[in-house]
Amino acid sequence: MYRNASSKCPPATQDLALNLRNRQNAIRVAKYGPANPSLTNHAFWSEKAEMWGATMSEAKTMRCGNCAAFNVSPRIRECIAEGIGDDGVDPYDAIEAGALGYCEMFKFKCAAARTCDAWVVGGPIRAERLVRR
After folding, report:
1. Residue 13 CA to chain centroid, in angstroms?
2. What letter would DSSP give residue 17?
3. How far, in Å, CA of 35 to CA of 39, rounded?
4. pLDDT greater than 70 at residue 11
5. Confidence tier at 50 by pLDDT (50, 70, 90)
6. What does the buried/exposed string (b/e) look like for 82-105 if buried means 16 or more CB atoms within 10 Å of the residue's CB?
7. Mean pLDDT to the nearest integer, 86-111
8. Torsion sign (Cα): 65, 71, 73, 78
9. What is the pTM of this model?
10. CB distance 108 to 101 below 8 Å
11. 15 in helix, strand or coil?
């Protein structure tokens, strides 16, 4: 099903403990959040707006889902699916429900509805890019 993607996958897409450590680092270092994007989270977004010198409405548009480090390429989605596994459940259901991608800055599976202090305009990554040397 996954065309043996694991050999080309970022380790955190395959190792839950590593993914959780990297996500915790993003929370600690870059204030990844909010914890529950479905809630208002006034304090969280107010802090982001102040940090970015933006209105709260503007800050709320600066999400992982449109960050230049948010990778949702087919290969990464396949890696995430392989890491989730398919014990009777389609892993792509979880990927879609959480709008999951991979944060290239902090190396963890990331939810599109969240953000962090390291947000960069210009994303997401939808296709593999050539490595420049």
Report:
1. 11
2. H
3. 9
4. yes
5. very high
6. bbbeeeeeebeeebeebbbbbbbb
7. 94
8. negative
9. 0.89
10. no
11. coil
For the chain, give the mean pLDDT: 92
What number of H helices and E strands is found in the chain? Answer: 6, 3
What pLDDT score does 131 carry? 53
Longest Cα–Cα distance of the chain, Å, equals 47
- Token pair, residue 3, equals 């065309």
> Average of pLDDT values for 49-68?
97
**30 pLDDT exceeds 90?**
yes
Contacts of 130 (CB under 8 A, 6+ apart): none
Say what the alpha-carbon torsion angle 76, 77, 78, 83 is, to the nearest 10 degrees.
90
Q: What single letter denotes the amino acid at residue 1?
A: M
Q: Beta partners for 115?
A: 33
Query: Going along 70-131, which residue ranges are E strands?
Result: 70-71, 100-103, 108-111
Q: Can you tell me which residue has the tokens 């948010």?
A: 70
63 in Cβ contact with 118 (< 8 Å): no
**Tokens 């209105």 — which residue?**
55
Rounded to the nearest 10 degrees, the angle between the axes of helix 91-98 and helix 74-84 is 120
